[in-house]
Amino acid sequence: MLGxxxxxxxxxxxxxxxxxxxxxxxxxxAARFASAQSAQSALANTExxxxxxxxxxxxxxKPIQSVPRPSVRQLDWVKQxxxxxxxxxxxQKAMTPAEEADSRTLARRVFYDLTGLPPTYQxxxxxxxxxxxxxxxxxxxxxxxxxxxxxxxxxxxxxxxRYAEDQAHQVGNDIKHxxxxxxxxxxxxxxxxxxxxxxxxxxxxxxxxxxxxxxxREDLVATGFLGLGHKFYNRGRLDVKAExxxxxxxxxxxxxxxxxxxxxxxxxxxxxxxxxxDYHAVAxxxxxxxxxxxxxxKPEDQLTKEDRDAHRHTAHVVQDKNPEDLPxxxxxxxxxxxxxxxxGFLSWLNEGHPIAFDxxxxxxxxxxxxxxSPDNPLTARVYMNRLWSLFFGEGLVKTTSNFGKLGAKPSxxxxxxxxxxxxxxxxxxxxxMVREMVLSATYRQASVGDPVQVANDPGNQWLARMNxxxxxxxxxxxxxxxxxxxxxxxxxxxxxxxxxxxxRRTVFGRISxxxxxxxxxxxxxxxxxVHAADRSETTTPLQxxxxxxxxxxxxxxxxxAADLSDQEDVAHGVDLLFRRVLARHPDxxxxxxxxxxxxxxxxSKRWVNLAxxxxxxxxxxxxx
Length: 624
Hints:
Distance between the termini: 69 Å
Largest sheet: 2 strands, antiparallel
């Protein structure tokens, strides 16, 4: 075998001394192997340098610049700036947009997208009867000003921040690591969206609000973004602390930067130029931060031991502790320490050069500034893509939390950059960008397109029609409560969704890492243990069985039917029921079927059964 390495066999030399022969073979082999390793290492370094140079030109980290408006032929179709980019792509591919959705469909769509709730029959009729040329625009503005808008947007943000009110573990009755006041952070998120807080402030307050002198007291709960993270048992052990830091690095960097930095915890990232030094530079920031419960609606010096033990009058936030730079934990092993790495940010965003934070604080403020900086090309791109995904069903970049080399490329790169540039240039306000999206001709398209185009683009990558979407579990449950007449608009401390007295919006329900509510599980609510980039969309028999047989659905159908059970004119009652549940009149076939059912089933439950059936219909579950 040694011959394959180019080492001659020396057996028998010097009187056949095998010992000397073996020594010489070992020395020569080691020298040849070391030389080969050195050559491979040099080659690897050259390749790494080349890769790093190419990585600076990677689409997601290029500076965001103003994008020229493309030329299009069908100018009368365009309604908003973004439409130019969509139409230009369609025309290049010899495709045509779908027709505009009818007014009823469009109004229902925008009600759900901006508030998470359906329009009532009367609201629809009022809109349909409004002959003002800007009727739809005025409807959009009214919905954006509704307090329901923030509740809808919170449903996006909470699963990005892995919001939860407990931990994935519990020993006996020990709940000291739970978060009974997590709802304070949730309400802050809702209020921030309703107030249209600039996105740079939204970032700063969640990462380091406690470190800015100008932060208002009510904004201190914003660091619940970090403060509601994992707390493991044996938290004094270094390996346990490292797990908590990894969770914080992963959540922050995927949410705001769309990068899987935690992949570099044990070794350099295999695909992106993110080094193990980069990971430990960011992790050191969180090693210098601690999760704490602080007084919120009562002065600190007035908190009793009972208050502290029960977490009353407190908020779950973070604060700095003695800052420390972490050593590199070799291959992720905390017992094998390399050189220390200064706290800092990603070298990829600094032309490959490390970014060290020279601060006596934890570095959270510097991290917030680095992320919120208008010169950071990832921040606006990632956020605009998230908004697009929320209103169109899929992001321009499908991998909404991975803008690295393993992520998807943008389907419309100029459109994404145009949105990001104008978002940043206009002060980073969310509502104007949302307004443009839902007023656009792209958004107003029907979900039924040309059959040939659908066959050629089944995934609707080129946006020649609107995507039909299934409601989130929050939308579905809230709709059931609204049409039954039981929906309550108030927040506060969370209630269990199984609580029969809980008629509040689903966003105000308790979210558990330990055991997620069965209704949420069945309808694809994300696992609260990790940052969830998107929601999966499964179709299983359990979903319909849960809806058909749950006490919640039957109770709401019964409450709705109680308003109709004294109807002597059955046809009129059926019409009222359709208007309450589906915000429309029944067609002739539906009315005939309902009358036949009533004639064949004279029992007292027939109104309940019909109401329940309409509530379980696909028309109730999908947004067209």
